[in-house]
TrEMBL record:
Residues 666-981 form the CHAT domain. The lineage of its organism: Bacteria, Pseudomonadati, Pseudomonadota, Alphaproteobacteria, Acetobacterales. This is CHAT domain-containing protein. Signal peptide: none annotated. Transmembrane segments: none annotated.
Length: 998
């Protein structure tokens, strides 16, 4: 089981095992309805109604609960007991007995203080702190009209407690006369913080914590992050950033960040929580820190470290629990103590998590016993909730899978799915487990049972608009493929189902990023006001995330930062309202998965979509064309495909020895695996839209070779670009949403271009890359020479598109400041011809950047870098953004086949419909020719895809004639690719896209 799931389990554990709100005061029903009880110390109106009794050494005469400030949980409980109420009785009740034991399970209290309440009655006041959240709490023992009265509640409820205890609530809910001031209230005033918080704040905190728990339980980690972050904000606002009881919410927030692979942010919060934990009111906080560090280590790919941390967590939990090894009975006494219950559940989960860590570390034989121990702990304590049992069964099934016990694993998975269906019906845990069960049924040869499980899981995923890891989805496609081969008459609908199933796989971060941007275009349908509203919401989300990360790492009492966050939250709320009014379909468009019919409707009559899904050992490639889906199995997995991609790329990029010999064998093998099986369906398609997967994102598909080549391929070789114009999209969903945006930009001006930058000087680079840390970077950056060819490239492009002379910004005028001053949303084509720097090339560069000219008098090179984060703030409405720079579409330092760099993603977000980017360092002359000829053809009325194809075919056809023969090498003609549609005219002609001659 994946560490993300495991980490989510731990968050559920900590959240659901802490005492719930009704562990402090008993829930008596739904809406509050009762008699007025006056106001609390914060002037919040309160109501009183009958409540349940609590453990006490004397008979209970009456129990009442007070609700204040609209909170749906009782703010206080007042219980009247029978018998005498002498001073000695009050002392005894306050110091020991059943009521005091019940209180101590939920709060930590200082020694009782003798005092008086309003009316002069003797009382014992206990200043307490709630173990969950650390909120100030009070308890009081006093003499009532009929005997002793015991009460406790949120600190601000003390005035209400006094009125109820003395019977001074009149018909209007006000005190029936003061009868003397309250010394107890004066003693508690320092803890009341009446101006800082009230019952509604405590209620808000607990509601948010419960919401975070529920969202985490369904493995919706991003939404759980929002809930826990809001809970932490309430707590820190009232009690300060360094209050030790903030550690609990901080840990919940941290592990949800870790689940999303935001590991650095999570680590900062875990460290902060660890520093606070020793002083927290909840004694389990230290154990939880160890537990969460272990789960974070699993998320970070370090099972060995996780094993040690989880073992330490087990020992810490054990110190808080009774001896369970020889325990008998139903565990009802443990259930009465929420602290022990929390520790028992923590112990069980830590054992189970360690079992998984052992398995991931190659010590699977040891994991079975730990899983059994985990179940035994829960059973002995009488604590076997469906969610935890489901996860235990799923972990046990994982052990069976590793031991080759397929049938047993399938049965355990099905039992686990049934448990999840009760605990969280229709949520991600149930769907994941159904897919795992289907995988085991398929391995056992029961395809019918496998498809039943897969389809049930897929229905949940579609309803909840969530995805799964590729490795879980590929077996579903395998089962459908087997079924289609066994039943040719049903092949059509089964292949279409395969396409839809492939869309259930979680896509790369690039696909999600570009999908967000394309959704903005799709929902607007050319309406600039709608585009602006959606863009405002996306910008607000990005701003808040950055501010929250800054606050997580900041020191205490950062009022200015808190004010910025509050202002950003207000802006986001306003943006949300604007989007809801202007574009109610945005959320659905952003989240909905596409089916084959949606793609069929989006494709033109001469277009085909080629997409694929690569699993660990095998994959599938699919084509949508002429209203139907064809699919074929790829007999190798992602690792083998990645090796072929690397061979092709290494043989395409210039190195120290010049341009290497092209690996034609690898280029043909990729074609044989991915394209050849579908040649019949693809034949005749003028445009091929490619939605690659995994490492294939790093490859220009036009350079694949359809037939083997002996020696070096020539321009006349069977390159894929000779058969089709090629468009790349991160996912089929992106294609559908981009096509909803119409055919083109509404910007009034044709073109603006930037080029021929003046490189920063060696001293300027040295200041940006200090020699003691970044000396190598400084030497590499200093080697960036001027690109004189880009001047002619930009000037030729400007002339071709008929732009004004001042729309070519060159030389020293090409600065970042000058670029940002331009209204780039007024241009249909934006062209940047310069160098690009990527973090993988310069170790001290934190994000991808385009290099411009430094402004006059700049002491360093920093102002010359246009960073990806700055591009996000640019507003565009461009058919085409040309990034004629080195590696603008390269891996970007992210790995995993993320071929779109941060720069490319940023420009898409800024408002580009199409990006023409490069996959490796480009030749100056070839780049100028490619860009100019592409724009010339586009001006002739063809699409951006056909125009780029025409320019590439021109180079191939003229290589060895009017161009050097070396230009047939992909280094020269293949690096440029089109991502997204670019320009899509209403009609194109084949002749317009035909290659010209020099």
């Amino acid at each position: 089981m994946h560490a993300r799931i495991l980490a989510g389990i731990a968050v559920l554990l900590a959240a659901c095992t802490e005492p719930q709100p009704d562990a402090y005061v008993t829930r008596t029903g739904g809406a509050v309805a009762g008699e007025p009880a006056g106001t609390d110390a914060r002037n919040e109106a309160c109501q009183v109604q009958p409540g349940r009794s609590i453990p006490a050494d004397r008979p209970v005469l009456r129990a009442r609960e007070a609700y204040c400030g609209g909170w749906t949980q009782p703010a206080a409980r007042v219980v009247e007991l029978s018998g005498s109420a002498t001073e000695a009785d009050l002392d005894a009740i306050a110091a020991s007995g059943l009521w005091r034991s019940w209180l101590d399970q939920r709060v930590t209290c200082a020694a009782p203080t003798r005092t008086t309440i309003a009316g002069g009655g003797s009382a014992r006041l206990l200043a307490c702190t709630r173990r969950t959240g650390g909120w100030p709490h009070v308890a009081i023992v006093t003499a009532g009209p009929s005997g002793p009265v015991v009460a406790d509640g949120v600190a601000t409820s003390l005035p209400v407690i006094e009125r109820l205890a003395t019977g001074r609530v009149g018909g209007g809910g006000t005190a029936a006369g003061s009868g003397g001031r309250s010394a107890a209230l004066e003693l508690a005033v320092a803890r009341l913080s009446a101006d800082a918080f009230g019952a509604s704040d405590v209620g808000r905190y607990e509601q948010l914590m419960a919401l975070g728990r529920d969202l985490n339980q369904t493995e919706n980690f991003a939404a759980a992050e929002d809930a826990y972050r809001a809970a932490l904000a309430v707590q820190e606002r009232v009690m300060g950033r360094e209050n030790p009881n903030a550690a609990t919410a901080m840990l919940h927030l941290a592990i949800n960040l870790s689940n999303q692979r935001r590991l650095a942010e999570a680590g900062v919060l875990i460290d902060r929580a660890a520093a606070l934990a020793p002083r927290a009111a909840d004694p389990a906080t230290g154990a939880r820190v160890l537990h969460y560090r272990g789960l974070h280590a699993l998320n970070s790919g370090d099972p060995a470290a996780a094993i040690g941390l989880l073992q330490q967590a087990e020992a810490a939990y054990m110190a808080l629990t009774p001896n369970l090894t020889a325990r008998e009975g139903d565990g009802s006494d443990l259930l009465a103590d929420p602290l022990v219950q929390s520790a028992v559940l923590g112990l069980a989960e830590a054992k189970r998590n360690r079992a998984v860590a052992l398995s991931r570390a190659g010590r699977g034989a040891e994991s079975g016993a730990l899983i059994a121990e985990s179940r035994a702990v829960l059973r002995r304590a009488g604590l076997e909730p469906n969610m935890m049992v489901g996860r235990a069964l799923r972990t046990e099934a994982g052990t069976d899978i590793r031991m080759g016990r397929t049938e047993g694993a399938a049965q355990l998975m099905e039992r686990a799915a049934s448990r999840f269906a009760v605990a969280a019906p229709g949520e991600r845990p149930e769907a994941v487990t159904l897919f795992l069960a289907g995988q085991q049924r398929l391995r056992a040869g029961n395809r019918t049972a496998a498809l039943t499980a897969f389809r049930a899981g897929a229905a949940i995923l579609r309803a909840r608009q969530i995805g799964l890891q590729v490795g879980l989805v590929v077996p579903y496609l395998d089962a459908l493929d087997q079924e289609a081969n066994a039943n040719p008459g049903l092949a059509g609908p089964l292949r279409a189902e395969m396409f839809g199933a492939a869309q259930l796989a979680q896509r790369s971060s690039t696909a999600r990023f570009v999908q967000q941007a394309s959704a903005r275009l799709g929902v607007s349908e050319g309406n600039q006001a709608v585009q602006g509203a959606v863009r405002g919401l996306q910008d607000a989300d990005r701003e808040l995330r950055e501010l929250f990360a800054e606050r997580d790492a900041a020191g205490p009492n950062n009022t200015a930062l808190d004010e910025r966050i509050a202002a950003a939250q207000a802006r986001r709320a306003d943006s949300e309202s604007q989007v809801a009014a202007a574009a109610p379909g945005y959320r659905q468009l952003l989240l909905a998965a596409v089916d084959a019919d949606s793609v069929i409707r989006a494709l033109g009559p001469d277009e085909a979509l080629l997409t694929m899904l690569l699993g660990p050992r095998e994959g599938f490639v699919m084509v949508v064309r002429n209203g139907r889906v064809d699919a074929r199995r790829v007999p190798v997995g992602e690792e083998a495909i990645a090796a072929l991609v690397n061979r092709v790329r290494r043989s395409s990029e210039i190195g120290a020895g010049g341009v290497p010999r092209f690996d034609a064998a690898a280029a043909h093998e990729l074609h044989r695996l991915l394209v050849t099986p579908l040649d019949g369906t693809l034949r005749g398609a003028s445009t091929l839209v490619v939605a690659p997967d995994g490492p294939l994102l790093a490859l220009p598909f036009g350079m694949l070779l359809g037939t083997p080549v002996q020696g070096d391929p020539t321009g006349a070789a069977d390159w894929l670009i000779r058969r089709h114009a090629v468009v790349h999209v991160p996912s089929p969903q992106t294609l559908v949403t981009l096509r909803a945006a119409g055919t083109g930009s509404t910007a009034p001006l044709p073109y603006i271009g930037f080029g021929d930058f003046v490189p920063p000087s060696a001293p300027q680079f040295a200041r940006s890359f200090p020699a003691n840390r970044c000396g190598t970077d400084a030497r590499l950056a200093t080697g960036l020479g001027r690109l004189p060819g880009t001047r002619s490239e930009v000037l030729a492009s400007r002339a071709l598109l008929g732009a004004a002379p001042d729309r070519a910004i060159l030389g020293a005028e090409f600065t970042v400041a000058n670029l940002r001053r331009q209204r780039l949303d007024q241009y249909r084509v934006v062209h940047l011809a310069t160098h690009a720097l990527l973090p993988g090339e310069l170790s001290c560069l934190t994000e991808p950047s385009i290099v411009a000219s430094p402004p006059g008098g700049s002491p360093s090179a920093d102002p010359a870098f246009l960073k990806a984060s700055e591009v996000l703030d640019i507003k565009m409405d461009a058919d085409l953004v040309i990034l004629s720079a080195c590696n603008t579409g390269g891996p970007g330092g992210e790995g995993g086949g993320e071929a779109l760099s941060g720069l490319a993603r940023a420009f898409f977000y800024a408002g580009a419909r199409g990006l023409m980017v490069t996959h490796w360092a480009v030749d100056d002359a070839a780049a100028a020719l490619t860009v100019a000829d592409t724009l010339r053809r586009q001006q002739g009325g063809v699409s951006s895809a056909a125009a780029l194809r025409g320019a590439q075919l021109l180079i191939l056809d003229e290589a060895g004639r009017n161009l050097p023969a070396a230009f047939a090498h992909p280094y020269y003609w293949a690096p440029f690719v089109l991502i997204g549609d670019g320009r899509r005219p209403g009609a194109t002609s084949a002749a317009a896209g035909a290659p010209a001659r020099l």
